[in-house]
Amino acid sequence: MTFPSSSRSVTIPLQELAQAIDATIHGSPDALISGLSHLEGASCGDVSFVLKPSLMEAARHSQAAAFIVTDPIPDEPRPQLIVSHPLIAVATLAQKFFLPPLPPRGIHPTAVKGLDVRIGPEVSIGALVTIGDRAQIGSNVTIHAGVHIGDDTIIGDECILYPQVSFLPRCVIGNRVIVHSGTVIGSDGFGYVQHEGRHHKIPQLGQVIIEDDVELGANVTVDRATFGNTIIKRGTKIDNQVQIAHNVVIGEDCILVAQVGIAGSTVLGHHVMVGGQAGLVDHVKIGDRVKIAAGSGVTNDVKSGRVVGGRPAVEQGIWRRSQVIQYQLPEMRKELRALKKQVQHFESLLHEYSSSKTPSGSKSKP
Amino acid sequence: MTFPSSSRSVTIPLQELAQAIDATIHGSPDALISGLSHLEGASCGDVSFVLKPSLMEAARHSQAAAFIVTDPIPDEPRPQLIVSHPLIAVATLAQKFFLPPLPPRGIHPTAVKGLDVRIGPEVSIGALVTIGDRAQIGSNVTIHAGVHIGDDTIIGDECILYPQVSFLPRCVIGNRVIVHSGTVIGSDGFGYVQHEGRHHKIPQLGQVIIEDDVELGANVTVDRATFGNTIIKRGTKIDNQVQIAHNVVIGEDCILVAQVGIAGSTVLGHHVMVGGQAGLVDHVKIGDRVKIAAGSGVTNDVKSGRVVGGRPAVEQGIWRRSQVIQYQLPEMRKELRALKKQVQHFESLLHEYSSSKTPSGSKSKP
Amino acid sequence: MTFPSSSRSVTIPLQELAQAIDATIHGSPDALISGLSHLEGASCGDVSFVLKPSLMEAARHSQAAAFIVTDPIPDEPRPQLIVSHPLIAVATLAQKFFLPPLPPRGIHPTAVKGLDVRIGPEVSIGALVTIGDRAQIGSNVTIHAGVHIGDDTIIGDECILYPQVSFLPRCVIGNRVIVHSGTVIGSDGFGYVQHEGRHHKIPQLGQVIIEDDVELGANVTVDRATFGNTIIKRGTKIDNQVQIAHNVVIGEDCILVAQVGIAGSTVLGHHVMVGGQAGLVDHVKIGDRVKIAAGSGVTNDVKSGRVVGGRPAVEQGIWRRSQVIQYQLPEMRKELRALKKQVQHFESLLHEYSSSKTPSGSKSKP
Lengths: 366, 366, 366
What we know:
By secondary structure, chain A is an alpha/beta fold.
């Protein structure tokens, strides 16, 4: 089979794009732009971008109609938009001009609402959405098909909830929060008390609070607190399949890459970056601006500003050096054994030597 | 924005709480209790709890109206409920008095039922639930919105299935089983036979059996067996994002922490505890009461009672010692190199010495 | 409770099974077969199979009515189907005779279709399925309850989409693709540009392409590309809870075991096998027929044909040797320390020896 790409219909004057990103136009401002793409994927009509000087050559061979650059590409006849941060310009243009439009506003007739639900203006509630009793939904929220919103959940303004997201009861969600499909927010924390060989459930009475501008990937899980709150603070971005346990607090502007797991009551500061598949045990404190390498296992507190890695996680320098040397272990062991033999040989030599001297020493014997 | 907490409406005489947990009341029994919380989160009206003597000071500063304790807090005027197991008391009270009520009994008009479905008394089947042909559902079961129950699936009594859970056909679920949102039970096991460079699917004809009192977290996956059954036995508790492959058997009263993966046909005994992100390869046997550290990779059978860790997992003592020393590897290598130099120096000294002696040694020759 | 197994109703003459797999019948061809099972699970009426000579004894004790074998079991009176590849024969028979039938063709009245949807013949679209505008669905496709298909998504022929799968807009799916429950295809890639301490979303404008004969397990996530495509090529099989980031390209006939994570823009060749819980960083190139051990962390390109393991992943031989020696580290350190002491002892001996000689050496001084 062949894989057709989706049809395009926009055409925007280059001038209009330039205005949206405060760019200086180098060359003709009259081009009409129909898309935005990276250099290798750009077709005629697209605006593309050059993120570093080494890509200028690739730009020359690209089919793009125009470029977003920091410095004009020498001898390039196609128009260029000069900006100081090309990637931010790209993000802005993509957001404003090239994203598919949001679904139409209104409530689909198949959506199921509970009692005393409050819904703000300009919302879009898709097919087969279920909304529990006393839920509150802000203005300009987009809720895609099949989302479930539990009783007493509060959702701020301008959120986007993708298909099949589940909010269990009493979650509190800020403004401009984006949640991708399959993500579950407010499931019970994993808490039991063992008694006579059986595990007895500790009901999880707490809540989940997700602050403004947070984005959660697909199939993420965020458990409600036992008591109090599990909190994800403003601006934090979480990738797919991340697990956030009960009573965890994640600071502002953190980045958690896919498949990270954070155990109960652990607290992260702001601007923490956690690499993919890393795990953090329960009840540890991670300071601000900490970086945790992919695949690490954090078992202790980490002070602000530190970069750590490994299982258990230690300072990056120590971890990196050990990581390299682990594979020299067979060689080290060989050397150690050779050395041991050599030393044994010396010992026997010394022994021989000292015994060869003994006869003269034995002179005094008789 | 501000994040309001959900409204409360219960008020229960302390006496009634005491009776429910067989507590002796120390102080006045007349207080009215409106909530249950941990010490730092308690507001006036809440009953709180002291799990160890070191928390007595925190209790004194807490705003709680009453406490659950093993021994009375000295000089504390507020009433206290004396019990032998405070956490069990907390779990009991939470369950009986402070959980939000279950949804109303009955079948939502938007639920879709197949043919020959049998449904017990006192069930609650939420909006947009889909139930396949010949499915059987016991009494007092709560099925939240958007759950899918496949053909011929059998569900026992008093189960709670949270929104968006999927049971594929022919699963068998016991009594009092709790399944959290996004969990998939009975998906095909991952089985192929390779032939001439292509992978041919081996249809997965088996089933999944989940016994009484099991709890499965959110976004868990439990594959059906190729033939026979994948089994999770009575009382086992499984955290979010755990993967259970085809033909796995998990014994009674096990604990599997988040993001654990268990490969095909592996068998766990009873009371096994598996730490977060650990992986178990296929076809291994884990004995009873085994503990597996978080992040471990189990590649061999483990005998009952053992505590293992590491990749590959070995006895805890060996693993912990090696784990510490891995970060001393750079130091060890430095020492090894220094030693090597020193020994080389001896060798040259010895060589020098022996050659300096050779002339005199040769004296005896003639 | 007791766990009844699902009722059976098929009975097929052995002769008919033999024809379907081109088998020679050893013994009577008249048996009637009602099921297919492994040796230990087979009940009378079942055909079972012997995959290696060492299982012949188990076959003799099995209750099966007939066997699929490469060589006849000596002195076994029950009929046997002789084939060259028993497991392929099993897969073929399971597929043709013993799988539950596909759901009835037709579109369930509760399914919700958008505008300009094109649907091929002989499809089955289950209850509460939502299909976006301009979606195209091929012939003989089976879409189970609660699936969401986004706008402009194209699905080929004979696909099976299990309950609660989500396709976000503009995904392109080939023929005979199987997707298990809870899987999300086309969620946004995890892309941000940091500016003045905040993370700004880079809209993800690209698509996901899934080619023919791909199978995706349950709760898998496949992100759409930033620009261009995330691609999973023909015949690749992906297990539960695997994460595929934006712009990843997976070659043909690969196997990715459960909980694997592949970071952005990484490219895999064909016939690559990735063990469970392995992680691959972004922007690496993995050649053809590479094997990556379970739990590995791949941080660099890997050439075709290599077998790698460990964190960071290195050639299997090096990794395996080091893995064993890591647990001998305490022993090695002990040896190193003993050796150090011995050498220090020599040194002091030599020093003593040389100082005892110094007087004679000092002769030349005056």
